[in-house]
Amino acid sequence: MAYSILVLDDEALTLRTFGRALRDEGYEVFVAMNGEDALKIIADEKPDLAMLDVVMPGIDGIEVLRRIKATSPATVVVMMSAYHLVDRAVEAMKLGAYDYLTKPFQLAEMLNRIRHATEVLSLRVRVRDTVEWAKGRYDLERLVSNNVRMREILALAHKAAEADKTTLLILGESGTGKGVLAKAIHYNSPRSAMPLVELNCAALPETLLESELFGYEPGAFTDARRRKEGLLEKADKGTLFMDEIGNLSLSAQAKLLRVLEEGAFMRLGGTKPLTADVRLIAATNADLRKAIVAGQFREDLFYRLNVVPITMPPLRERKEDILPLALTMVHKYNREMKKDFMGFTPAAADLLARYPWMGNIRELRNVVERSMILGSEGDIDADSLPEEIRDYEAAEQNGETNDTPAPAGQFRTLREMEEKYIKDVLEACHGNKAQAARILGIHTTSIMRRQKRTEEKTGVE
Known about the structure:
The chain has three domains: 4-131, Response regulator (Rossmann fold), CATH 3.40.50.2300; 146-313, Rossmann fold, CATH 3.40.50; 316-458, Helicase, Ruva Protein, domain 3, CATH 1.10.8.60. 50% of the residues lie in helices and 14% in strands. The chain is built from 19 helices and 16 strands. It has a five-stranded parallel β-sheet, sandwiched between helices. It has a five-stranded parallel β-sheet with strand order 7-10-13-6-14. It has a two-stranded antiparallel ribbon with strand order 8-9. The longest helix is centred in the first third of the chain and has 31 residues, at 107-137.
């Protein structure tokens, strides 16, 4: 990409020399010998970078920098100053200059500093592209549903997105799409261009979770050798999504409550209060009211989180969405796997609609992916669906899915069912643990741990 650069200096020879060197590097160059001309170029051309001499007649380089940051904050500015003006260079850095060069300097040094500055521009472009991609993917207008209750939830999410300082609590079973809704709310809010930081409270032990959330100072604990910013600081001006917040320790809950009420916190081992402007979205599949009664969750934190509660319905209660969701997944995996599946046969679609989907959307996604890995292109037929889905229909037809319990001896244990399921998926993937883990929704180490447990139980060496 050819970047444009403004060079401001009151020496004609310097402008000619710098201009020639920068053009030879492929940059589009604008030059100005005074601050007034420089500001006009900034207004008309909006260059990507600016090199400004500090000492100028009339409007000096510092004032030009100040006005650039007010009118064109995306412009990356490199200041130029003599040795005896280092204090002014420091002032420029405080005003937002990216770098400064101390005169005299070599052309090679200047070009190297400019290359570093363009890396910042390139990073900004990538971040902007990523945000735009995420906005498109998580656009609330694209999250459609045929279910009345789900449409009401999406309408509520629209309103919640606009109230970008309001704390949200998303409830629902595992796999119902709580994380997707949280992302959609962020990317449809006024904070969409700022960070979305995610923390799974169930994935980290208590001590590590607090250090990740709040950060720490050197010496806060044995391995704390340097200062670490916490996720709260990284989410400043943006959104912090805390999944499985029911797993948060009581100590961390008290600290989080202070953040919500005062906007203040301290790093572990710190003594200076810090502030962060963060919109919190929390999610859980736990019953927090029961956790309050059990003394596992603070009641005051619950009410602070429960400002706008959103409960995601399980997939079995929105059956009209099952086939549209499955077809969307087919299109997604067609792109990823470079395959050409059309959809589902009527028999397969009927099986999908009848199945209770206790794992919700996550389970549906795994079933679609597995069926596309093992099936033939075209329409996915009933025989390509997993055994448990086909068996459910047979059990339903035989009246075995009613509320009358079967004799205890006819049941397998959960562990036996899990072991068989993992074995079947591994066989379908020809022993590829990475592929099997993706289908199962677990890590490869979890597969190996379960295999080892099975071998020890059966005495296999």
